[in-house]
Structure formats: structure tokens, C-alpha cells
Amino acid sequence: MATTTKKDYYEILGVKKSASAEEIRKAFRKLARKYHPDVNPGDKSAEEKFKSLSEANDVLSDPKKRKIYDQLGFYSDNIDPATADAYARAGGGTSGGGFQGAAGFPGGSTGQAGGQGVPFDFSGFDFSDLMDNAGQSRRSGGGGGFRDIFSGIFGGGRGAAAAETGPEPGSDLEYQVNVPFWTAIRGGVMRLNITRQDVCSNCHGQGYIEAPGKCSECNGTGQVTQTGGRMKFNVQCPSCQGTGKNISTCPSCHGEGTVSRTEPLEVRIKAGTRDGQRIRLAGKGNAGSHGGAAGDLYVIIRIDPHPVFRRDGDDIYLTVPVSATEAALGAKIEVPTIDGRALLKIPPGTQSGQKLRLREKGVPSATREGVRGDEIVEINVTVPMPRDERTKELLKELAKLNPEDPREELWKRV
User: Does the predicted TM-score (pTM) go above 0.70?
Assistant: First the structure.
């Protein structure tokens, strides 16, 4: 059976053991671009380097896998977190040539670890050295016993084979869409072209394709032997992912399982949709890799401005010019609304800048059935330009009848 050499995943990616998930992600992307087979056609060493990088990233980017790897020095899907934790805490005495106190360890020279299906081959293993070292440790006050011994075996080096790449969910997408003013108020359908990651049709999202023949690394067994000191572990073959078959990276998606694709999409805009509102379309984001669920698509609404109306929430604002006579004497005038024309009463003595309200002439609410906003009309009093002597005389007569100084209050506050 083939044997894998020990690998330090942190060293492969060029990061410290304390590196964050973001640091690991950035390191992998940087190196993957450098050693990708497409960038180095025919370069076997670059291809092997890329495989090692993918192997290291698969384990270290997954918190659960990384914890097991840090505890044992290698990773396998056959070992669950509880068993790995037990191995890391292993310690105790001996009985009948086996191990006690180390949860999941076999009682004899060979066996199954904690029922997890990881075979341990102890053939040819001399336990006397361990017994002597354990005794010396106790006599010298170290007190570590088998805990120190197994810590050295399992933790001294970084692990061997990478496990099969599991399903990874797709990321969410955000698209900002400019919606016409009237479409946002009355509702409608927007047709968009969305560029997203879709499942690769060549490999059906697996990231690899099969070829005739057996895996050259494990010779078709699906397993390789990992050595830890003088102990041996049978683990899943990293090259064929335990299938025993001759597989290669998909040339269409380069092992990602997804490809970039642009597709048309219809988005229904509800009547009363507000500026900045997010519309969620479940499952319309990027496709997951290796069978993972797709992400969601969030459409962010940006409403185009209108030359007359200004919208704030569900209220509509506009400015209406009023003559000085209408403002002074009062009047009923027609003003535009989103529903058409409406009558507005101008009280006598209305001043420029004054705001008048037309109730329920605003936008229908998109969240509360049967509720509408108001229309707020700001008055802009226009002053007539005297075009003849008769108009000037009338305005002078008006000034004599109304001698009040409009700036009197201003001077009082200076």
C-alpha cells in the first residue's frame, strides 16, 4: 500500500499556526494563482504544488477539520472531533500490553480507534521504549507519562492526507437596480441580466472528472498509509478522494465545481417599493461548490428622481407657485398628485414657504395594506411685475392701505 509523506499545511500555505481564517484564505488565493495548472501548462511540479495547496486549504479553512488537524497532526473524515479530542488528552497506565485511559485506543497491537474505522498498525512496535520513557518521566517529576509520548507522536508533525472536499455553500450576491419613479409607485417587473457562479455542467459540480484506470498514488485502494513515528494509520487517499479511480481536475471549472454565467432574471417590484429597499431572491446567488446549496440574491432598489415630485418614505413633496392675490385673499387651486389633479384650498394670508397637506394623496404603502402617505405642498408666492402705470398706482395705493413694516420683527431680534 502506498505511503504519504508528512506534510505541514501551515508551512505549505506560508502562514503561522495562529493565522486567522482570512489570512489562510488570502494566502491560498495568492499561491493558487501562481501554481494553477492553467498558468503552468505541462509543469508537473506546479501541478503537484497546486494539489498540495488545495489539500492544505481544504483542511485549514474548515474550523472543525483544522481543530482535528491541530490535535492529531493529520486529518481524516473517519475521525470525529470527539475522538480527536480524546486522543489529544490521552494518558494513563498500561495493562496487558494495551493502552488504558486513552479513549478510543485499541487494547492490543491492532484495532479500531474509537469505532471510527481508522486502522492502527502496531506490528513491530516496541513498547518497552515507551514504558521506560514513561517511567523516567514520572521519576523526574514530569508526570506526563503516555500523555507526553502520544503528544510527541501525534502532535510533532503536520498531517498527511487531505479529506474529500465537502460541499460548500455559495455566496450571496447584491445587485443595485435603478427603478423608474412610476414603477416604484405603481409596481411592475424589472428584467435584469445577472452574472453569477453556476454549477459546472462538465463535472456536474464535483470539480473533477474521471478517466480510465486506477489512482496512481493508492493503486486503486482508495487509502494510503500515514506514519506517525513508528505507528501507521490508513487514511483516505488525497489524490482520488477515496474513490480509487483516476480522477483529474475539471478543465472547465478548474476544480471549483462552478463557472461564471450570465442569465436573464425577472424581479417583481411591489407597488410602493422604497428607495434603498432590499428584495431577497432565495437560491439565486452563487452556486455552491461540490454539491453545496446556492446563496441568495439581494436586489437593492434605487429609485430614479422625478422632475416635479420628490418622495420621502410614502409621502410626496412638491412646490406650487401661487400669485400674491391668491395668497392674500385665499383661493382654491388645482395641484398635481400621483393620481392626477386635485383641489387645494389656499387660506387667506398664506405666506411663501408655507406647507399645506393633502391627506392620503401620497404613495400606497408596500408593507401596510390600505395605508397611503400624504402629499405635502409647499407654497411659493410669486410677485407680479407692474407692466403699466395703472398697475403701479394700484400697488402704491395698496402699500398706503397696509403700512406695516415686514422687517419690524427682524430688527427687534438684531
Answer: no
